[in-house]
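Journal club prep — side note

Before the paper discussion, L.F. wants everyone to see what a predicted structure for a comparable chain looks like in token form. Sequence:
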Amino acid sequence: MLRLADIDGSLVVTRPLLPFTPVEFARAKAVLDLRRHLAGPPTPTAGPVSAPGRT
């Protein structure tokens, strides 16, 4: 079983019979790191933004 941190929580990958190798773990982690990088910085969760001087 592989358990990796992801943008949306954690990702758990399982397969019967053979265990995952360290290389497979490294590749899965690299893919998730790339996804995180391409997603960009997290957006603020503040309320609506209005222009200065307007209500």
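L.F.'s comment for the group: The chain has a mean pLDDT of 80. Keep this in mind when we get to the figures.
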